[in-house]
Request: fold
Amino acid sequence: AHRYKVYSMEKLIPGVQKPSYPAIRDISRYFIVEFPSDTDLHEITSAYQSNPYVITAEPYQIHTYLYTPSDPLFPDQWALCHVNAETAYDYCRGSRDVIIGIVDSGIDTAHADLRDNLWVNPGEDLNHNGIIEPEEWNGIDDDQNEYVDDFWGWNVWQNNNNVQEPLTSDHGTACSGAASAVTDNSIGIASLGYQTRLMTVKAGDDTFIYNAIQGVMYCVQNGANVVSMSFGSPAYTAYEQSVMTYAWDNGVVIFAAGGSDGGITPIYPAAYDHVVGVGSTDQSDHLVPFTNYGSWIDLYAPGINLLLTTHNNSYAYWSGTSFSCPLAAGLACLVWAADSTLTNAEVVQQILTTAVDIDTLNPGHNGLLRIDAGAAVSSVFLNVDLTPVNPPIIIHPDGGDFSYVIELINQDSLPHSIDYWSELVLPNGSHYGPILGPITRTVSANSGIIRQRTQSIPPNAPPGNYLLIAFIGSHPLSICCRDTLPFVKEGTSAVDGFQPFPVEGAPNPFEGPIDKGVIIPETFSVSVYPNPFNPTTTITFDLPVASQVTLNVFDIHGRRVGVGLAPTRNYTPGTHALTFDGSGLSSGIYFYRLEAGEFPASGKMVLLK
Reply:
């Protein structure tokens, strides 16, 4: 007790007495021991377990609610289960202060699963009771925003306040339900937006959207945090791009459907700068046949057989990127509800960096990310931080070690049990490990765990640039967040059969040698990691045959950047890696194009400073 500064020891159940019969478990002998929060819980538990006077010692458990919303159709919403919505709900259940603009064909304002989430313009709701009453239909622009009686939004197509969707269309009503159907109300379906308010902008009919840009501007000017657009065409215009940039500069996150033509041709507004383009996946994380794809698609979300709202308090199954888009946009609302101090760039980064990499499930594609609501929201509260003890880290050719500090951080008001593990990215871009963990730790509320570890690098490890990556989450199912620590090993060549990378001060280092013989890839492929990045990233490519390789990087205007990054040269079969340094570039989206003989590849890179 003295060694660990124990300051309290009380009975588990006060007042309980020793039982009269020996066969009955004696609960009176259980005690709760309290000690400073910076003490290693597992270390003190082990110490008590090794004490001959203690029969057993184990952590005292604080349980969280296993929350499932009361909406009766929630079990039929496979997409919400697939993106770990229930985990997200354990951390955050939305906010009435977050507003999403749905620019579409209108909404069924009377739908029982939507009406309580309708945005009500506070400037037109004169008594501020959230209900539009007859005397407020006064034909006066009470809030002086140049729109008369715009109670729930505006009809920018016909220039009036009628945002009701006609019975001939359910598209806008379905999109609204995908984004923010009222959740936990014992009616119909649930949504990621949960209680996010729906600002309705009617921009067209059941066939065309005529006034998209005016609709986006209405949302920006009237306080929307997020805008969802489920329409598009192959036509680029400078004025539309200007409006998207204006919205972004005003702190708004814009999502747009990538289109359901099954092609690679860019569709706008999804392909505009400052717009998150969304494609569709199925229950197995495969791209659905109808989804468009390409480097201009930023993110994927479930988009087939989604149960959504329709007229007359009804529901129907819908498929298409039109509905993947508001689903992803609803996640942005939930992330913002979890932390209202985030910028729009940070909200997007939160979603991208916690998304699931589905490249391996979709051969021939690179950079595919599917939303993970549980990881995106939980990582607002949980974090991992790596700090080198004596930077920069440069390992001698004969091997050596370096020390670093790892901190697991919990900013939630509840304790959380999380898995921690780490691995290395080798100079050739391949991943090695885990070299540590997975280790399960319980982090107290509004607290953290700090430990120092020493990483050994064997003498015959290959020379070059390494990354130590620390992960927290639920191993191996999901990654909540990660941090990286770069280091360099000097030398000119590797020796076959180098030893494992042991970690001192930690249990279960990864065992087993790595075969360092030359491995010839079976297929041509390109990957970028990390992505998003700041300021450097590694472009790794596999060559099944010797090839003349050219690599270029372009900004969104098609201008080449990073001149001299990789002049055309011949590469042997194998895996190769090049570093792209964006130190002199501004934050934004960049595109790489790598040509290796008859194999072309291109993709998107996001620089976030």
